[in-house]
């Protein structure tokens, strides 16, 4: 059985990569390649929508897909906890949404390690860098990392002087500092401060090829997903 895939954001950097992967992946085919001029009903007839756009487009496309019988993979930033909770309440029982803040397996592992380390330190900050054309900040990965740390701790981190603008955006009590620079693909450091020591958990993406394994895994699992799944963690056996 061939799984037909609609790609929202098909002409962007990630969308172009995904289209090539689907073309080469046994048992999958591109049903529709949607760009900013496409009508949402072009996805009708597909089994799965994979969305790599901007949040406002992603929200509309995801809801349309669910209403018309598609499962969805969301690779778009901006789906914070409140929005995810609202989305979860609207997913039909027979449908599933897999929200992937980062398709890099190394990034997922780094966030998982940071959530473990976060239980042992009270001084935590995140520094993330992406290419200068990324329109949102902080990144979805950084937000997900901060939320994962707070979840593992059972409470938000209490950072001092968070009212100062230079401290960055505060997510779950953790300051996140965002850089947007030419020549960068993606780089995240989670820095833990302790008595007489620093721990730095860093993941650097050197090319978009780092996303291939995660995209492939998401595509292979998407049709069988039910309800809401956030991150590749569960698909990799790392838990929720």
From TrEMBL:
Residues 109-235 form the Dihydrodipicolinate reductase C-terminal domain. It is an enzyme of class 1 (oxidoreductase). The active site is at residues 130, 134. CDD domains: DHDPR_N. It is found in: Cytoplasm. Residues 4-103 form the Dihydrodipicolinate reductase N-terminal domain. The keyword Thylakoid does not apply. The keyword Amino-acid biosynthesis applies. GO terms for molecular function: 4-hydroxy-tetrahydrodipicolinate reductase. NAD(+) binds at residues 9-14, 35, 75-77, 100-103. Keywords: Amino-acid biosynthesis, Cytoplasm, Diaminopimelate biosynthesis, Lysine biosynthesis, NAD, NADP, Oxidoreductase. HAMAP family: DapB. Belongs to the DapB family. NCBIfam families: dapB. Catalyzes the conversion of 4-hydroxy-tetrahydrodipicolinate (HTPA) to tetrahydrodipicolinate. This is 4-hydroxy-tetrahydrodipicolinate reductase. It comes from Gulosibacter sediminis. The lineage of its organism: Bacteria, Bacillati, Actinomycetota, Actinomycetes, Micrococcales. The gene is dapB.
């Amino acid at each position: 059985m061939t799984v037909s895939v609609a790609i929202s954001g098909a002409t962007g950097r990630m969308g172009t990569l995904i289209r090539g992967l689907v073309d080469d992946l046994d048992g999958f085919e591109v049903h529709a390649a949607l760009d900013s001029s496409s009508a949402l009903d072009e996805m009708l007839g597909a089994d799965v929508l994979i969305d790599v756009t901007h949040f406002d487009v992603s929200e509309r496309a995801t809801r349309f897909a669910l209403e018309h019988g598609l499962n969805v993979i969301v690779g778009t930033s901006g789906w914070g906890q409140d929005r995810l909770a609202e989305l979860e309440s609207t997913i039909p029982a027979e449908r599933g949404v897999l929200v992937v803040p980062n398709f890099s397996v190394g990034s997922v592992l780094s966030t998982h390690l940071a959530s473990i380390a976060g239980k042992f330190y009270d001084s935590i900050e995140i520094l993330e860098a992406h290419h200068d054309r990324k329109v949102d900040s902080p990144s979805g990965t950084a937000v997900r990392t901060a939320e994962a740390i707070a979840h593992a701790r059972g409470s938000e981190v209490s950072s001092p002087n968070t009212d100062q603008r230079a401290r960055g955006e505060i997510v779950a009590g953790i300051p996140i500092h965002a850089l947007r620079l030419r020549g960068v693909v993606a780089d995240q450091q989670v820095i833990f401060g302790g008595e007489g020591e620093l721990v730095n958990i860093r993941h650097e993406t050197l090319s978009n090829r780092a996303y291939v394994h995660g995209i492939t895994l998401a595509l292979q699992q998407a049709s069988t997903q039910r309800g809401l799944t956030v991150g590749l963690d569960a698909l990799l056996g790392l838990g929720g």
